[in-house]
Fold this protein.
Amino acid sequence: MTMRPDFDLDGRVALVTGGSSGLGLAIGEALAASGARVVLAARRQDALDAGVERIRSMGGQAAALSADLADARGLDEVARRATEAFGDPQIVVNAAGVNLRQPAEEVDLASWELTLQLHLGTPFFLSRALVPGMRAAGYGRIINLASLQSSRAFPDSAPYGAGKGGIAQLTRAMAEAWSRHGINANALAPGFFPTELTSPVFDDAARSEALARQTAIGRNGRLEDIAGPAVFLASPASAYVTGQILHVDGGFTAK
């Protein structure tokens, strides 16, 4: 037995939804740099192609999968297509999401259904469709994306907050269902990172600086800050970690 932790992802296949930009792409790059062959899934083919090229330019292996992840009835097909490039994924990162930032009085049924599907329905049904391949491999890692809003409220985000509160509990339920088969389920809960979803925050310098002051570290997140936690949760080093929500927020929730 060695006490040196194993963060090696050589031979592993990872599916990353929301992988065309932001935290999804950053996680995809980190997994590829650690040896995984990565399938990036999102709607925009051009952005996916750019992401694949970024990973390949750094010496990694990647493929693109263009799909509407909000289409609940198409997820089994997404899971099937995810195997085409490199075989069955043993790692799935559920990073696809949307925050429409509507006041509670303006949230309509379409907005509600889209947000809850992407943040709850899609992670559950897509992960479940990939579980048989993980069980056959004797190894599985499900990484969901939680949020500061998994435990607290922000303005104009009722559906988003409901989805992120739900994904924390869904992560625990996934862990209860599948960890005995070697399939661990955890969630990353990022603080404020510069992504498309948070552009309204980062476009307002005063607001961005105020949020940075609310962290223990004194700054907002950088995309590279998500890399280590994501690789840990994807790797054999996290073998005895499941059902957990890891806040990567610079200590925002600690203050």
Summary: The mean pLDDT is 96.
